[in-house]
Amino acid sequence: MLSVRDLHVYYDGIHALKGISLEVPKGKIVTLIGANGAGKSSTLRAISGLVKNIKGSIVYDGRDIAGQTPVDIVRGGIMMSPEGRKIFPHLSVLDNLMLGAYSRNNKAEIQKDLEWVYEVFPRLKERSGQKGGTLSGGEQQMLALARALMGAPNLILLDEPSLGLAPLLVKNVFDIIQNINEVGKTVLLVEQNAFAALKIAHYAYVLETGSIVLEGTGKDIMQNAKVCEAYLGG
């Protein structure tokens, strides 16, 4: 579904990504793990069209989307739930969700997806008229995920979905990611909670200072001694 080849990203002279290549097969969960500053978020931002100073190819469903606008990429079937949630705090939960569907025109399909999102996230249905900024941290993360799903993506990019959440909520988030995948959504997951990410990932890449240093199945990476020492507490 997604093939990234020799991707370089630059920020004001800083070489953030140094020729990474990765594959995201249709219907799978692929995760990127690594320390802060490794280039994980830069990878998602490049795929989403939010970074302009890039080199390399980003092929999605047979089309090179490198250099396309974020709007075109969203319309092509890729949505991102960004790090830090980035919800609209002064808008209602429902308005936040409907903004996720801004590029869609079929009202019946939008309503169908809204009902499905409310089934996946029943708390959001209870809070539909409440302002997004009044939700708890866990509820805001649910809203960010649900908003991305309202774009009806084939590929969903998740940037640090468990950041700042209590352990019980972290488990809930990863259960939901698995459920999203099971209904046919392909997932590219960036996550500092390496253990939780590798546990659900079909395939994984380890990033260090802008380069991929290791790749393999989630299970294989979890059992790698160097990964255990660096990211899984030994």
Runs in which pLDDT lies below 50 for 5 or more consecutive residues are none
SS content category: alpha/beta
CATH class of the domain at 1-77 and 187-234: Alpha Beta
Radius of gyration equals: 17 Å
- Give the termini separation: 34 Å
What is the strand tally? 10
Query: Helix tally?
Result: 10
Would you tell me which CATH topology of the domain at 1-77 and 187-234 applies?
Rossmann fold
Query: What name goes with the CATH superfamily of the domain at 1-77 and 187-234?
Result: P-loop containing nucleotide triphosphate hydrolases
Spell the H/E element sequence: EEEHEEHEHHHHEHEHEEHH
User: Helix amount, in percent?
Assistant: 25-40%
The second-level CATH architecture of the domain at 1-77 and 187-234 is: 3-Layer(aba) Sandwich
Mean pLDDT: 93
Largest sheet: 6 strands, mixed
* Shape estimate: globular
| Lateral arrangement of strands in the main beta sheet | 6-7-8-3-9-10
Strand coverage percent: 25-35%
